[in-house]
Write a structure and sequence with these properties.
Elements lengths: L2 H17 L24 E7 L2 E10 L8 E5 L10 H9 L3 E5 L17 H14 L5 E6 L1 H12 L4 E7 L17 H8 L4 H11 L7 H13 L5 H17 L13 E6 L22 H11 L3 E6 L6 H4 L1 H12 L6
Parallel strand pairs: 3-4, 3-5, 5-6, 6-7, 7-8
Antiparallel strand pairs: 1-2, 2-4
Length: 340
């Protein structure tokens, strides 16, 4: 971690406390494309046209010192970025894997075009185009949360390009509309996203991701997200987040699990409380929105070749909560050691 960023982050919680409230001014302004947030490896971009205008898809391509000839692609979650995979990238490259880590269009260091009509098909296609541009024809795809939903769509669209699929507490295992989740239009979601702050991000993650607990190490990633909302680009970021939230609701993959053919492992933190859309669901129906650990076994049975590997005592983001344990499990899967 760069020393300048570390010093800034260490100072920020005190500054926020002294200010008496969590306001945009209390958060660092990292820019709407995280221009002032340093990633652990050089960031490159791929330029593509979206609705007639050029946009940039950011990514890191990290080589192993002693390559084993295999490539792993890490797909971030909705409230995460490519940088959040830092510990896993180090473990994978130490083990000989080349690792490619994109920031999806609409997220983090990638463009957030106002005119974009976001879809999992679009993001999967751009990811495939990125890999082709880097000379990668076949890779293990690891997707976390929203990225897990994207990874499943990628495997359906490009099955021959997937050596193995690893889904880390993925969204999309259930069609939440069937359980009573109502449609919320983009403008309403956008209004909600404009209220995003460090405090709101932390409260949501503490309750849903980290089962009510909190470690100082998590703050870095909350400041990263809050920093995209802190400056003049706030509306741009909020709109992209609103559109991609609507995408999760309206583009389920749950009815197509049987189309997922590559060998698949679901790495599931057993304390994950995430149930997408819980806040928008009528109170009388919320109890029917089961969290990811409760629906993962049935989802795996619907896939052609899938197993569940529980990570006992961990929540929605095991790669952040206990990086060493998560990386050991992931490397075990890549080496063929997995179990139910």
């Amino acid at each position: 971690m760069p020393r300048s960023f570390l010093l800034a982050v260490l100072a920020l919680p005190l500054a926020a406390l002294l200010a008496g409230a969590d306001t945009p001014a209390a958060s660092p302004d990292f820019g709407p494309m995280l221009e002032r947030f340093t990633y652990p490896w050089p960031v490159q971009t791929m330029t593509v046209d979206v609705v007639g205008a050029p946009v940039q898809m950011a990514f890191m391509d990290v080589a192993a010192a002693r390559p084993n000839g295999r490539t792993v692609v890490l797909l971030h979650g909705k409230n995460f970025c490519g940088a959040t995979w830092e510990h896993s990238v180090r473990s994978l490259t130490d083990a000989g894997y080349r690792v490619i880590v994109p920031d999806q269009l609409g997220f983090c260091k990638s463009s957030k075009p106002r005119a974009a009509q976001y879809s999992f098909e679009l993001l999967a296609t751009l990811t495939h185009r990125l890999l082709e541009s880097r000379g990668v024809t076949r890779a293990t795809i690891v997707g976390h949360s929203f990225g897990g939903m994207l990874a499943m769509r990628y495997a359906i669209l490009f099955p021959d390009s997937v050596e193995r699929l690893v889904l880390v507490n993925p969204l999309g295992l259930k069609d939440r509309s069937e359980e009573g989740l109502p449609y919320v239009d983009v403008d309403t979601l956008w209004a909600g996203e404009r209220r995003t702050s460090y405090a709101s991000i932390k409260a949501y993650q503490q309750e849903n991701y980290y089962h009510g607990t909190w470690k100082p190490a998590y703050d870095r990633w909350v400041w990263m997200l809050a920093g995209m909302y802190a400056g003049a680009g706030r509306d741009m970021v909020a709109l992209a987040q609103a559109k991609t939230s609507e995408m999760v609701k309206t583009q389920p993959v749950a009815h197509e699990l049987g189309r997922i053919a590559p060998p698949t492992t679901l790495l599931i933190g057993t304390l994950d409380r995430t149930a997408f859309g819980r806040a928008q669901t009528p109170p009388t129906l919320r109890r029917f929105l089961l969290a990811i650990p409760l629906i993962a076994p049935d989802a795996a049975r619907q896939m052609k070749n899938a197993v569940v590997m529980p990570l006992d005592g961990l929540g929605h983001a095991p790669q952040v909560e206990d990086p060493a344990r998560f990386d050991a499990a992931l490397l075990g899967v890549l080496k063929g050691r997995q179990g139910r």
